[in-house]
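In response to reviewer comment 3 from the previous cycle, which asked for concrete evidence that the modeling workflow produces usable outputs, we include below a single protein chain processed end to end. The sequence was submitted unchanged, and the resulting structure tokens are shown without manual editing.
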Amino acid sequence: MKEKKYSKLIVPFLLLAAISVLSFYMNKYRIGARHFIFPAALFVLPLAFDGKFRPKDISKPSKEGLFLFLWVTLAVIVFYPPLFFAYNLGFMHRNMVTPASSELVQAVIKGLIAIAVAAVPEEFFFRGYLQEHVFAEFDRKILKTVSLKNLFTSILFGLVHALAFLDATRAATFFPSLLFGLFTEKSRGRIFYSISFHVVSNILAFILWTFVK
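The workflow returned the following structure tokens.
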């Protein structure tokens, strides 16, 4: 029984390996179409090669996840900027600048573009496919709120980001990934709020980076 349980992980890990190699190659050699190829791969590969994965209604909002999403989003908007500036100005010794209005607009546009090239495809693959399909049976909670399936998915999320951007610090995406996973679990496997929080996080980060140099 256990052997059958773990044998189901072979195809998903082969797909994950293919995505990791693809992202590494495209970023290392700066392939121009990487911003289109990588998101497409996140959608196409699980649907094409894992016949048991046929998602339905996973992008619809759910009443169960709304309360958590609103409170966490509010907390991030209030508390993250001071931490961001404290780290970059105090620890990294960067300078604070006043961005032009055009820079702020560009930051928001980048965040909106990231919906299509990052937020939606990443949540579809990592939360919709890996967490709620591949790791569905690993739902035992640790530390009361974090499930094993969320933990496994977040570790892989951080590793793939570090590889995709050729930057080890990108592995820190492990931490927001835990929140993405929690939103999905609270929403009974739906990814609407994990996508929404992903979008808010991206836009906020792009805006904050216009204030430091």
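The chain has one domain: 2-209. We consider this sufficient to address the reviewer's concern, and the full set will be provided in the supplementary archive.
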